[in-house]
Structure formats: C-alpha cells, structure tokens
Amino acid sequence: MPELPEVETVKTGLQRLLPGRIIISAVSDNPKSFPNATFDVEQFLYDATVTSVKRRAKVLLIELSSQYSLVIHLKMTGQLVFRSKDASFGAGHPNDSLIGELPDRSTRVTLTFQDGSRLFFNDQRKFGWVRLLPTVEVPELAFFKKVGPEPLELDFTWQLLWERLQRRKNTSIKAAILDQTVLAGIGNIYADESLWDAKIHPTTLVRNVTRRDIKKLHAAIQHVLQLSIDSGGSSDKNYVDAEGRRGSYLTFANVFRREGQLCNRCGSTIIKTRVAGRGTHTCPVCQRPRN
DNA sequence: CACTTGACCTGTCCGC
DNA sequence: TGCGGACAGGTCAAGT
Fold first, then answer.
1. What is the pTM of this model?
2. H helical segments located in A27-88
C-alpha cells in the first residue's frame, strides 16, 4: 500500500489520537510482525506514554516516554487502525470505518491503552513489521542511514534531485525515483503519476534525462504528493487511515490503474506495461520513449 | 559499486 | 465450478 502520502495521513491521524495514552499490553500473532525480546516489551513498552508520532520516508515512529520508540513499516498491505473503548463500527453506520470488528484475521499486533482504547496493526501479506527500540538508535537503522531526502521539505530543490540521480545514471528514471536512497517516499503510484505530469517516459535512462526534465519532474513530484496528502492518500485495495477511512487521491489519478481510459491531457489511450519489474501506466503520446 | 531478479506472504482475478 | 498462474501499493538479499 502505503507510499509517502498514505503514511503521512496515518501519522496525522495517530498524532491526533495517541499522545498521552498509556500502553498496558501488546499482543502479536506472528513473530515476524513484531520481532522483539519479551524483556524489552515488558520493561519499555508497558506503562509507557505515547509522546509523539512522526514519519520518515515510509516509516512511522511512535515515540514513548520510556525513551523507546515503536518503528513501523506497513509495506504493501499494512494498516494501523485506532479504536476507542467500546467503539461500535458495525456495517451500515454512516460514518463507519471500512474495517469491521477488530481484531480480525489479518490483525498481527494489538496494543491496548489504559483507557481501553486499542491500536491494531493489520497486515494481510505479513511483509510489514513493528519494532521496539531505543529512540536514540532509530537513526542508526541501516534503512535510515541510507535513505534519501524528504521530497516535501524546503531543502529538496531540483538541483538536489539532479545530484541524487547521478548515482543511478544507467537505469531507467522510474527505477531511479523508486530507489529510496535517491529520494524518500515515492512508490509505484506516485512514480507513474509524477512521470506523466512531467511528460517523461518511465524507461528513459537517467543519463538521457535533461535538466529541464528534472525541473519538471521535481515540480511534479511535489505537486502529486501534496495533492494526495490533501486527498487522504490513495486507496486501491487495502489502504485506510488511522480511523479506517479510505483516501480519494485515485479519483485524481491521470494514469495509475487507468489503462484503456483516455489521457486527460491529449485524449490518447493509457497503456499498461512493465518497467523496473513493476506494472507501469503511461500515455504513449504525452510520454514518448527516447532510448 | 551499479544493476537486476527473486523472495518474502496472502488474496484475488483471469483464462482454460 | 475448479485449478493454475499472474499479479498486487515495498524492500532486501543474492546474483551478474
């Protein structure tokens, strides 16, 4: 599922819901989903208060008063859904969460707070994980050591994007922007959407991409990500926010999952191919191949 | 080092 | 209807 806008949306919801709540238990059905020593959980998770919720790249950080943090990656199908005590989310209720009764068969970790509310980590495919580690050690994780800049921060200029791309000169521009060490947070949806916006064919080799292309791509990435955050992210199949609601970005998508439909810019038929091992959506007229 | 491919899992959809 | 294969929003290890 979740790329930068989806993780950002979950973060915003959890930052509103969790700080001040005290964790009293953590239960997991799958060691891979929550690989931690019992010692750490009992000593540094139980009775800890949530102090803040942050995001870096596609990773969520729930910081605790114990000086430990829960580090969470949702990978393809992870969800983090909060439920207050006795919340009733039966089908048919107008403001209902898309998710029914929890826990359900894809619930991997359940955190319970002192006030009876709960946070469920659901993950159909079991690729995602929750880890507990000292907050000071979070930046030392291999992933954080090598991950690239945040594309919505002020210091992310087109020149910086150009510079970061120089490490992937012989690969396709799509593979390059999916590479989290080049920049953080782009996944398959926003790669395709950004490249359409900038009129660049995804197989174009980085060494054949011009500075003008990169200026357009930089603007496109920022525009697409911000529009998606403002729309609550993209819900294709699994993604929901911290209260179980879907995002609406895909109603604005120009190419993703639109194969067979008409390009919003030129009227040509959108096609689906494979690039960098991923399903790839393009307008064959707006995005002409150059290699 | 740069680059590509397969693996990790479960569920769904599509063609025979 | 059943069955096999391809595919799904991410990352890592292993291969070339």
1. 0.96
2. 38-40
